[in-house]
Write a structure and sequence with these properties.
Layout: H1 2-24, E1 26-29, E2 34-38, E3 44-46, E4 50-51, E5 54-55, E6 58-59, E7 72-74, E8 81-82, E9 95-97, E10 104-105, E11 118-121, E12 127-128, E13 141-144, E14 150-151, E15 164-168, H2 172-179, E16 184-186, E17 199-201, E18 206-209, E19 216-219, E20 222-223, E21 226-227, E22 230-231, E23 244-247, E24 253-254, E25 266-268, E26 275-276, E27 288-289, E28 297-298, E29 310-312, E30 319-320, E31 333-336, E32 342-343, E33 356-359, E34 366-367, E35 380-383, H3 389-401, E36 410-413, E37 429-431, E38 436-439, E39 446-448, E40 452-454, E41 461-463, E42 466-467, E43 479-481, E44 490-491, E45 503-505, E46 512-513, E47 526-529, E48 535-536, E49 549-552, E50 556-559, E51 573-575, E52 578-581, E53 592-594, H4 600-609, E54 619-620, E55 642-645, E56 650-654, E57 660-662, E58 666-667, E59 670-671, E60 674-675, H5 685-690, E61 700-703, E62 709-710, E63 723-726, E64 732-733, E65 746-749
Parallel strand pairs: 2-6, 3-7, 6-8, 7-9, 8-10, 10-12, 11-13, 12-14, 13-15, 15-16, 18-22, 19-23, 22-24, 23-25, 24-26, 25-27, 26-28, 29-31, 30-32, 31-33, 32-34, 33-35, 35-36, 38-42, 39-43, 42-44, 43-45, 44-46, 46-48, 47-49, 48-50, 50-52, 51-53, 53-54, 56-60, 57-61, 60-62, 61-63, 62-64, 63-65
Antiparallel strand pairs: 1-2, 4-5, 17-18, 20-21, 37-38, 40-41, 55-56, 58-59
Length: about 775
């Protein structure tokens, strides 16, 4: 009996000795529970769950890095994190058993473990860092037991082509989208995740801290029935464990340094968040984040050293404070709101790969001189598609003043959002000498012209400077969009003539529209001519029978003759103040207006060049031709004094004998439009024979505003007629209409006369 007890004691002693010896191989940080070093040499490593009485929480950086002896490792329950490069380049490592408690596998954790053949990733896993399993040449079998975790860049880059990904059946679609690879249905593991418990101050509504080890933090909008309004200053300061952070709706504010140096990879912010405090995420290495539309303020240095590649700031934000995105070395693309008015000192300092900046506004913010210091790759700045050339230049000037060399970047204006995609294949022929597109057989209804073409020798690109003569003449093309390359200057002769064109989107690089460019485009209804256009050739829009509206955006232009001939649907045309014309535009003079900025000399010169009659007014856009109505004091004569044709609205004959005749504007409800030939004249062959050829009763005639035509000889030889008051806008005043009215001394046309026949006032001796 004593001997048996002795043997047991010896065995227990030996076992304890072995455990103690094994635990001496592992060095653990008592404060964090982090395995910080391994001194063993065995091929199989079973890491204890408890070392020297300390529960193990994580495997620290490089603990097993470059180990040449380890072939198999078992990670115990309780371990939640495998830190960066923990098993980096373990050349002989063939087998890894991860505990179900693992939540995070950081970047390069198993990089270059070339003999590792299989890995099972537990259901609790929420994060895998960049290149964690890259260059694992033998890794043929990867099994996920839970929902899709966040994956950093190139997690499984460089591996066997026959690799199989096995995932829970219900998550197959998500994994295929994430991995870009076919997956196989497998089992789902058991989730043992415990929701973290946060310290909360119910009086202020602020989360004040967290002492746990979870890699996934979801901060709720309410705790214990109280609303959570924000995160207190320094609440998670230098917390080592969080990788994925979600703030629920209701949270409005993140305090100063709240997540300072927390190694977060993913941050999901709520639609209620309004403010992010200074240095809130400084050093957090964030790879993915959303900025909600509610956000209005980001404090200084808030995202310094983050690792995201793209940011979009919401409308409503007015400033980017100092150093907010300083040293974001992975940041490539930045989208900024129209409300932005300030970019502060060192805001993007050291963003060494930043190359693309998009502004939603059309005026530049104030930019600190060092805001983009050490950003050598900025080359593309985009503005809204409808920004002007002047506005684009303002952005160029602003960035030059901020220290970006002008030769380093170009300010572009985005393509019209209505434009179709560029053709992938085309029959277009490009002339390198003129840099014009000279032919096209593409059978498309909408075309967005290319920015450029490759040289034939493939030595570089040449910009498209225009389209040649007749390129789309008679085609079925309905829509054409000029490229926003700032170098497209020419629309050639008859380029779209007799085509099915319905819409043409010009750009303010276009300088010349040549003769008959759009002639016969019967489906074209409207067009805007940008301020860059210097000349439009003869008959450019002739025969555009559906053209209703044309807008000139510039201040000066040279217009060819008969430009709008046959444009019967065209309404008022407002010409720039500095317009020059070759001759008539081919439309009624009353349709032509001039910009309000035109001075009297410009209007007089244009009036003459258009060949307008002296009585035809050329008005400014906002001017109203004063129409003088017939006063109520003039009482119309009785309808019985007039022989009236109700079908045509014509007074055929005056049959009364009054000295003063006020023609009614209506007779029996029919509007009076015309005074017929000889209507008030007695002069006929028979009257001459009878000696009654002169109308000797009429002294005063009043013509209402409804009358548009006074016929030939209408008042011929009304010898006692002394005064004419005409309130009509007369489109035609007939030949010899008032001839031989020898007593006529006053003629008042209160409104327009558009056409006047010959000898109208011949032998009116008193005029």
């Amino acid at each position: 009996m004593k001997r048996c007890v002795l043997i047991k004691l010896v065995c227990l002693f030996v076992l304890c000795l072995l455990v103690a010896q094994a635990q001496e191989e592992f060095i653990v940080d008592a404060e964090t529970g982090m395995l910080t070093a391994y001194h063993g040499q065995t091929a199989k490593v079973e890491i204890p769950a408890v070392i020297n009485g300390i529960p193990l929480r994580a495997i620290d950086k490089n603990v097993f890095g470059h180990n040449k002896s380890i072939k198999e490792v078992v990670i115990p329950e309780g371990v939640t994190h495998i830190m960066d490069s923990a098993f980096y380049a373990c050349d002989e490592l063939e087998s890894v058993t991860l505990s179900s408690s693992i939540q995070s596998v950081d970047g390069f954790a198993f990089f270059l473990c070339q003999k590792l053949e299989r890995i099972v990733l537990p259901a609790n896993l929420v994060f895998i860092g960049s290149n964690a399993f890259s260059a694992c040449d033998s890794l043929k079998d990867v099994t996920f037991l839970g929902d899709v975790p966040f994956l950093g860049k190139e997690v499984f880059e460089i591996g066997p082509e026959e690799r199989v990904y096995t995932v829970p059946e219900s998550a197959m679609a998500d994994y295929e989208q994430l991995l870009g690879s076919r997956v196989t249905a497998g089992e789902r593991g058991q989730l043992s995740y415990t929701e973290p418990v946060f310290d909360f101050d119910s009086e202020s509504g602020l989360i004040t801290g967290y002492e746990g080890y979870s890699a996934k933090l979801t901060i709720p909008g309410t705790m214990n029935g109280q609303k959570v309004t924000g995160i207190k200053d320094r609440a998670f300061f230098a917390h080592k464990w969080a990788r994925v952070l979600t703030l629920e709706e209701g949270i409005r504010e993140i305090g100063h340094s709240a997540f300072f140096a927390v190694p977060l990879a993913v941050v999901r912010l709520p639609g209620t968040l309004e403010r992010i405090g200074e240095q809130a995420f400084l050093g957090s290495l964030i790879e993915e984040i959303n900025f909600p539309n509610s956000l209005r303020e980001i404090g200084k240095g808030a995202f310094q050293s983050a690792k995201f590649t793209e940011i979009t700031l919401p409308e409503g934000m007015s400033s980017i404070e100092d150093s907010v995105f300083e040293a974001c070395w992975n940041l490539e693309d930045v989208y900024l709101p129209s409300t932005l008015s300030k970019i502060g000192s060192r805001a993007f300092f050291g963003c060494s790969v930043l190359n693309y900046i998009v502004f939603e506004g059309d005026s530049p913010p104030s930019i600190a001189k060092d805001a983009f210091l050490d950003c050598p790759k900025i080359n593309d700045i985009d503005l809204p598609w409808n920004a002007s050339k002047v506005q684009a230049q303002a952005f160029t000037d602003a960035f030059v003043q901020a220290g970006i060399p002008q030769e380093q970047f170009k300010v572009w204006r985005a393509n019209n959002p209505a434009a179709p995609p560029f053709l992938r294949k085309t029959t277009m022929q490009f002339d390198e000498e003129t840099q014009l597109v000279i032919s096209s057989a593409d059978q498309v209804e909408a075309l967005h012209m290319y920015y450029n073409f490759w040289k034939k020798d493939a030595s570089g690109l040449l910009p498209v400077k225009g389209i040649a003569e007749g390129i789309f003449e008679g085609s079925s093309l309905k829509e054409f969009f000029v490229p926003h390359n700032d170098q497209f200057v020419l629309i050639g002769k008859r380029a779209f003539a007799n085509s099915a064109l319905e819409r043409i989107d010009l750009f303010d690089s276009v300088e010349v529209i040549e003769e008959e460019a759009f002639a016969g485009c019967t489906h074209l209804t409207q067009i805007s001519i940008p301020d860059s256009v210097q000349r439009i050739g003869d008959r450019a829009f002739a025969g555009c029978t559906s053209l209703q509206r044309i807008v000139f955006e510039g201040e000066s232009i040279l217009l060819g003759s008969q430009l709008f001939e046959g444009c019967d649907a065209l309404g008022s045309v407002v010409l720039p103040a500095g317009t020059q014309v070759v001759s008539s535009l081919g439309i009624k003079p009353e349709l032509i207006r001039v910009a309000d900025t035109a001075n009297d000399e410009q209007i007089a010169a244009l009036h003459s060049a258009l060949g307008m009659e002296i009585y035809e007014d050329l008005l400014r856009e906002s001017e109203v031709k004063a129409h003088t109505p017939m006063p109520d004091s003039f009482v119309p004569n009785a309808k019985g004094e007039f022989d009236f044709n109700a079908e045509t609205g014509t007074i055929n004959r005056y049959i009364g004998a009054s000295e003063t005749v006020v023609i009614p504007s209506q007779i029996d409800g029919v509007t009076v439009r015309e005074i017929a030939f000889n209507a008030f004249s007695n002069l006929t062959v028979f009257s001459v024979l009878e000696g009654t050829q002169d109308n000797i009763s009429l002294k005063h005639i009043v013509i209402p505003e409804t009358v548009q035509v006074i016929g030939d000889s209408a008042f011929l030889s009304c010898k006692r007629l002394e005064r004419v008051d005409c309130y009509g806008s007369i489109h035609y005043l007939g030949v010899r209409a008032f001839e031989e009215c020898s007593a006529l001394s006053e003629v008042l046309f209160y409104n327009n006369i558009y056409e006047m026949g010959g000898y109208t006032f011949n032998l009116c001796e008193r005029l």
